[in-house]
Amino acid sequence: xxxxxxxxxxxxxxxxxxxxxxxxxxxxxxxxxxxxxxxxxxxxxxxxxxxxxxxxxxxxxxxxxxxxxxxxxxxxxxxxxxxxxxxxxxxxxxxxxxxxxxxxxxxxxxxxxxxxxxxxxxxxxxxxxxxxxxxxxxxxxxxxxxxxxxxxxxxxxxxxxxxxxxxxxxxxxxxxxxxxxxxxxxxxxxxxxxxxxxxxxxxxxxxxxxxxxxxxxxxxxxxxxxxxxxxxxxxxxxxxxxxxxxxxxxxxxxxxxxxxxxxxxxxxxxxxxxxxxxxxxxxxxxxxxxxxxxxxxxxxxxxxxxxxxxxxxxxxxxxxxxxxxxxxx
Length: 329
What we know:
329 residues, alpha+beta, 2 domains, 9 strands, globular
């Protein structure tokens, strides 16, 4: 697996770590990963794309329903199933109960997806990649066959009103398609940037997420400000880190586009991208500082964070319009 460009949400991180070593894949990466969304309460925040996960041209992706995989496990041990997939060059993404895998250090029943990329049959160990610890950081660790068997068998212990897990949650397996050729398409980037500025809802009409309230693109800033004004805080730094990740990726995208002549050479756009990244980093760090001060004083003091949200929104809009102008020239 390659070191992924993004380490924010599991779905993006795993995909980029799987495909990251394929020659030329950066053209597909920089053609997407523009739009982001956040649930109304900031509980969920992630990148979204037209070319996202199941549409990734570099991956064959197969989903095995939860009830289906359990019926198969009645005949064949789970460990043998996983070994067989990995021996055939698949990666495995499986629903488990974190409580039973020591590497997570989590004492309670909680649903999760473990990403398995290898095994050692002699030591009876699986190699897993995930976000471990608190705060969570992407890393690789091991778990025993016995731990994986029990974590899978006890998945139903996570079913509750507080946990959205259920018996239909699937196992997903991935296999690389290394001979894919992707040509960078500026018109796709223009579309995504326009959607971002408009805050367009990009969920398919059949998505279960349409049953909840989500904010897309530039509209995330106003919802973050609303949460601070209503609640005095947000639940975690994650949405602000997402804004920083997006800006950092956008800066790399600008370097790629300038180097490959997809936009006219313009030093100002590079400066704008660096400034945009700098301010999102300042925003994330200011929130962490305000959070520490607020905990110490036992009261919310996030005025500095809120002011920076407004500044970053302005920088983001200005940068995006500047890039759109270059793409149209």
